[in-house]
Amino acid sequence: MRHRYECPLRWADLDVLGHVNNVRYVDYLQEARSALLRACLHAAGVERQEGVGYVVVRHEVTFLAPLLFRSTSVLIDSWVTEIRGASFTLDHEIYHEAEDGSRVVYVRARTVLAPFSLESGLPRRMDDAARAALAPYAEEGERTRPLKVDVPREHAAHYPVAVRFSDLDIYRHVNNVVYFEYFQEARIALFGKLREALREFPRINVVVAQTDLEYVAPITARAEPYDCWTVATRMGNKSMVVESEIVDASGAAPRDGVLARSRVVLVFFDATTQQSVTPPPGYREAIVDALGGPLAVPSA
């Protein structure tokens, strides 16, 4: 069984291309996820799980088609694809459905969540009650794999991440959706380095095709900004890959100070035709020269 959620669109969700911004899709998924968990608890005969919270560990979001503003709600199907000892995985599909049953699918996504104790703030295992509540929505699916990124600081663009009070969720951590905004702002800063290098070329937009984001440790509010480091790691004929890390350099964070990491696939896009495009000769080489690092440009 799949849970269906009707999500209204807002004018403020649109980006400069008139599409729903990639960050807003993750906001829609959060609404759908909350509705699913409420339905699970209602079916189990309880209003909420005392002392238990859920945090997002991982997002994998594949963008399939641009979503334009319309008065009708977008539909989101959500279902459970894996229940492990200390986490569970939800798959999602965001779409519109015509009267004849045909669909236009805009996004397919996967979210890994983990329960934790509200009292101690520490992870906890999935209990029998939670497993039983999720079971009606279970379908077999693929297992997620760890996200590995490589962000050499000597080639990376730096962006200071300032946490706003409104970025926090009910657990006083930065909400999982806001991380997508932080990484988006860092990408914009990275592309700011390209303006001079690309001034001889016609303007080419980019759209997000895929975002994988892993949450390593919570980000909390503080006066000092965190550090986001971003590099372009791969250049294709019609796309490029950008990898980023948000780091706490104060020494308070565990291990190497990494709080979150992401990999984003960007596609070169023509706003007039609404299609992906191959940049003109020299365009990708200009990006590589401007950004530096171990990038290679494929042969045409």
TrEMBL record:
InterPro entries to which the protein is assigned, alphabetical: 4-hydroxybenzoyl-CoA_TE (IPR050563), HotDog_dom_sf (IPR029069)
Highest taxon of the lineage: Bacteria
Matches recorded under SUPFAM superfamilies: Thioesterase/thiol ester dehydrase-isomerase
Pfam families in the cross-refs: 4HBT_2 (PF13279)
This protein's name: Thioesterase
